[in-house]
Design goal:
Layout (H helix, E strand, L loop, with lengths): L7 E7 L6 H7 L11 E2 L9 H11 L6 H4 L17 E10 L2 E11 L3 E7 L5 H9 L13 E4 L8 H5 L2 E5 H6 L6 H10 L10 H13 L15 H13 L9 E5 L7 H16 L4 E5 L4
Parallel strand pairs: 1-2, 5-9, 7-8, 8-9
Antiparallel strand pairs: 1-5, 3-4, 3-6
Length: 294
């Protein structure tokens, strides 16, 4: 099995980041020696990294955001609180695909108030880790009893598919695979239905919520443009707004960011970091995987 612990670094932030040692064992996604620097907390983070931007968000909030964020409207309301003491809990999970072990013995607890950044080079298993969180792959039972993935935000009587739809996801792959040249506002509306393309018409309340998100992400003036005419940075903001309108407009219980800086120029990356900071400061739980250190 790949030595995942040697290839990924994990950071945690938020209200619970100050809890210290009592949370350390559960918060470590991979059991890696401290000497390898796999576990990064606020005081140990390298300067000016994408991971630091997410970690700082929980500590500093929207008031500390750089100038672009200050020029944008207030953050939309945060999603409803989790029903348990955790958002997602992964226990002793292996992921085996095509006979290859991609992840081994993963144990990870994501709690309300936390925002995570996972660092690693291409091929380290970062996207597979997000797939595991999103329920797109399931723990293997080839080498014994399967591990578990539990969702603390699942509502009583809710099916697994219904629970999974409360997880938002944004990344370069979605930008590439979203083949419909909808208007910007229509693309954002599609998030409420979880569809690629617009599968239903948005009602007045949904449109009003979408208008707030377009304003928040600085997209109002682009609302009538086709998404294929946008820059990569603009399209990434559209997909963030789309994710925030997920679950029928209620917003995601957890937002997964899969290499969100990929393909962006320096200015667009800076703007994206500012938006992530505002979203995290407002209470949207973020898990970001990236190989970018700046």
């Amino acid at each position: 099995a790949p030595d995942l612990a040697g290839r990924l670094a994990v950071g945690v932030a938020g209200d619970r980041a100050q809890d210290g040692a009592k949370d350390g064992a559960e918060n470590a996604v991979i059991s890696a020696p401290a000497a390898h620097g796999a576990m990064q907390r606020d005081s140990q983070a390298p300067a000016q990294t994408d991971a630091q931007a997410v970690r700082q968000a929980g500590a500093h909030g929207a008031a500390q955001a750089p100038p672009l964020a200050e020029s944008l409207p207030q953050v939309p309301p945060a999603p409803a609180a989790a029903q348990a003491s955790y958002l997602v809990r992964v226990s002793k999970a292996d992921v085996v695909l095509g006979g290859a072990t991609l992840l081994s013995d993963i144990t990870w607890t994501i709690r309300p108030g936390e925002h995570w950044a996972v660092l690693g080079q291409n091929g380290a298993g970062k996207t597979t880790l997000l797939n595991l969180l999103a329920g797109e792959v399931w723990p293997s039972a080839l080498s014994g009893p399967p591990g578990r993935v539990e969702y603390g935000f699942a509502l009583p009587g809710q099916t697994l598919d219904e629970t999974r739809r409360r997880i938002g996801r944004v990344g370069a792959a979605l930008d590439r695979d979203y083949g419909w040249n909808l208007r910007v506002d229509e693309t954002v509306w599609s998030g409420a239905f979880g569809s690629i393309g617009l599968s239903a018409q948005a009602g007045p309340e949904l449109r009003a919520r979408a208008a707030l998100l377009l304003d928040f992400f600085g997209l109002s003036r682009l609302a009538g443009r086709g998404i294929q005419s946008l820059s990569r940075g603009q399209l990434r903001r559209v997909m963030l707004a789309r994710a925030m309108l997920g679950h029928g407009g209620q917003g995601p219980a957890l937002l997964l960011l899969d290499e969100p800086m990929a393909g962006l120029d320096a200015r667009a990356r800076r703007d994206a970091r500012e938006l992530f900071a505002r979203m995290a400061g407002a209470g949207t739980p973020l898990v970001m995987v990236t190989h970018h250190l700046r």
